[in-house]
């Protein structure tokens, strides 16, 4: 613990180099899990590194006589999330052991993102270094691809370039994260002027994402770009015309965006028809409807299941499960779980609300994750690049603004800083 770098985290603490290295390794474990390698017992690394990080910070707090709790503004939303997931775990229909593993994965993921990460990273260091981690993971997958046989047990594995990842949609998350991070860096003014490396990152991410052929991710990239341009227009107008006029412009542009998206969806439905849309979505829509209609109770759900799993069809035989975050939430955790998820997303949004610019560009990351969840399950439910980007960014932003609690050991008081 003696070797430190002069870097201050979002909680205002000195950052230890070993903690940063351990967190980088923890971030890379999911990339290993998502690879073409038939990984076994990968949770040993995922849980083990997290346990080591928590142990180091706990011992440090005990020696200092106080416990630092980051992300104070998310305590209530995530207490609801964890309690409801535990209730659904108890109700799990015959797959309790498997569901328990994913429940612990979920706990570990958000414990690291919300409690550990703000004590290691500031907003600036998180964006800069997480982009490097994703560049490393994607570059390693491209270089290692010729030496690793393709996995063919997932439907659609050959529809685009996936390199050493198991599926093109999984591979596409990494260039999308690189692209989003670069946009957010300049939006939040972590960087003022673009350098050649930043231009290279954008070009590399757009080219590799296009090669994957992931339609969902390409759509998310387009929406994120438009949202970023919208934010630039509003923030520029606010700078020169503060007051009600700027707020009115922001509301008007958001309303136009909602109307445009809703109108586009309705036009596509009317002109193409439900069957054509379902075909373009590779049958996701019809299968999700079948699975949801087969559930006995959609208010409470059928019980906690691994992401994509269902009681209607075998994932191994079909090559895929329920695609889409929202279908998975409603099926497994019911409408109650969906409402609690919405509360958690609102909590994320509130963590960044202290600053107009940070709030605007955090919204780009959050909306990108939510759109990705329309057809994929990796956001929120799993420790994907999009999950960690949104969760850690929210926690570091909120903690930096004062959303932390300090519990003094041996005293009857809890000192908090207002969010």
TrEMBL record:
- Record's superkingdom? Bacteria
Entry's transmembrane regions: 67-87, 99-121, 133-149, 169-188, 218-240, 252-273, 285-305, 325-348, 360-380, 386-407
Keywords, ordered alphabetically: Membrane, Transmembrane, Transmembrane helix
Regions annotated as coiled coil: none
- Write down what this protein is called: Uncharacterized protein
Q: Which organism is it from?
A: Paraburkholderia piptadeniae
């Amino acid at each position: 613990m003696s070797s430190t770098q002069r870097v201050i985290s979002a909680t205002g603490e000195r950052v230890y180099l070993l903690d940063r290295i351990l967190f980088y390794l923890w971030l890379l474990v999911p990339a290993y899990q998502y690879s073409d390698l038939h990984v076994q017992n990968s949770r040993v690394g995922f849980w083990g590194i997290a346990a080591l990080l928590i142990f180091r910070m706990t011992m440090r707090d005990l020696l200092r006589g106080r416990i630092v709790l980051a992300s104070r503004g998310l305590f209530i939303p995530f207490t609801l999330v964890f309690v409801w997931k535990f209730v659904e775990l108890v109700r799990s229909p015959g797959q309790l052991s498997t569901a328990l593993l994913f429940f612990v994965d979920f706990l570990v993921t958000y414990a690291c993102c919300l409690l550990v990460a703000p004590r290691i990273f500031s907003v600036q260091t998180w964006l800069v270094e997480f982009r490097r981690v994703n560049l490393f993971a994607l570059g390693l997958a491209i270089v290692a691809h010729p030496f690793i046989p393709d996995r063919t047990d997932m439907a659609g594995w050959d529809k685009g370039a996936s390199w050493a990842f198991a599926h093109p949609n999984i591979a596409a998350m990494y260039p999308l994260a690189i692209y989003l991070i670069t946009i957010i860096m300049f939006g939040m003014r972590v960087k003022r002027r673009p350098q050649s490396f930043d231009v290279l990152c954008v070009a590399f991410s757009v080219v590799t994402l296009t090669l994957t052929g992931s339609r969902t991710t390409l759509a998310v990239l387009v929406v994120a770009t438009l949202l970023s341009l919208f934010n630039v227009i509003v923030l520029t107008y606010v700078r020169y015309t503060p007051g009600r006029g700027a707020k009115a412009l922001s509301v008007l542009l958001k309303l136009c965006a909602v109307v445009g998206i809703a109108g586009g969806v309705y036009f596509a439905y009317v002109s193409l028809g439900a069957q054509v849309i379902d075909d373009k979505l590779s049958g996701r829509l019809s299968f999700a409807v079948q699975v949801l209609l087969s559930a006995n109770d959609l208010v409470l759900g059928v019980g906690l299941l691994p992401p994509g799993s269902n009681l209607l069809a075998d994932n191994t035989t079909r090559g895929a499960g329920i695609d889409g975050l929202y279908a998975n939430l409603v099926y497994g955790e019911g409408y109650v779980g969906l409402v609690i998820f919405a509360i958690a997303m609102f909590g994320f949004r509130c963590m960044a609300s202290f600053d107009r610019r940070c709030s605007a560009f955090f919204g780009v990351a959050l909306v990108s994750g939510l759109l990705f969840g329309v057809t994929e399950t990796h956001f929120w439910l799993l420790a994907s690049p999009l999950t960690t980007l949104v969760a850690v960014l929210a926690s570091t932003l909120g903690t930096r603004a004062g959303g932390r609690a300090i519990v003094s050991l041996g005293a009857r008081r809890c000192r908090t800083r207002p969010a």
